[in-house]
Amino acid sequence: MKKPQLLLIPGLAANHRMWEYTAHELSDSFHCITASLPAMNNLGDIAGHILKRIQGNFSVAGWSMGGYLAFELMRQVPQRIDRLALLSTSAHPEARDVALRRRIMIREAESKGYLNMIRQVTPRFLHPETVESGLVGQLMIKQAAEVGLDAFCVHQKAMMTRPDNRALASTIQKPVIVMVGSGDIVTPVSGHEELAAMIPEAELIKVPDAGHMITLENPSVTTNVLRRWLTDKEAAIAA
User: Fold this and answer.
1) What whole-number distance in Å separates Cα of residue 118 and Cα of residue 108?
2) For 121-175, what is each residue's pLDDT tens digit?
3) How far is 39 from 147, CA to CA, in rounded Å?
4) What distance in Å separates the CA atoms of residue 168 and residue 142, rounded to the nearest whole number?
5) Mind listing the pLDDT tens digit for each residue in 14-29?
6) How much is the pTM?
7) CB crowding 203-228: b at 16 or more within 10 Å, else e
8) CATH number 3.40.1390.20 is the correct assignment for the domain at 5-95+157-238
């Protein structure tokens, strides 16, 4: 019997390693496909590229920028998406102060060294205990090196021009889960509470002992929640 498809979308300066634990743990029941993100400066174009790799219906989990891309997929092929998981993300358009911070990061990456800049900002994305261990920080730097400066800069620009997804969120009639690290200061809990309230029947999960990098900081909790979301027959029937 063919396994249902699960599309896993990483975010900025991240790749398949962001979802490695989850993909491995869920591969017993699901055909897991981790999206690769081409260096394009438009989220709609990136979503179109992702769709070339996957046929038929699928569920999608998007982390951070991957959440913005999940919204793009909902805009382009809503009829093909069975379930939606939004992790460490937002439905809002880019705020002016965030866009300014992105421009500063691009300038510093180009002038002071890309990986040096990543090392400097890493603690902001992590729970204090995760910072202390150092392991997730090392993996973040490894992913960033693999993604490269060019893609990092182009993806920052793509996010600056992302659409307002709040109206779209209110129309979603799928089993949806919204997840956030309890210590996330990049995309705070309050924003996810607002996001979950926008989407009919969405469930909000606050992942303990995690900041923004929830799939790496608390992979077992994150993956267990995703498994339940994927196998909840009641939610599927209701949808």
Assistant:
1) 10
2) 999 999 998 998 899 999 999 999 999 999 999 999 999 999 999 999 999 999 9
3) 9
4) 35
5) 999 999 999 999 999 9
6) 0.95
7) bbbbbeebbbbbbbbbbebbbebbbe
8) no
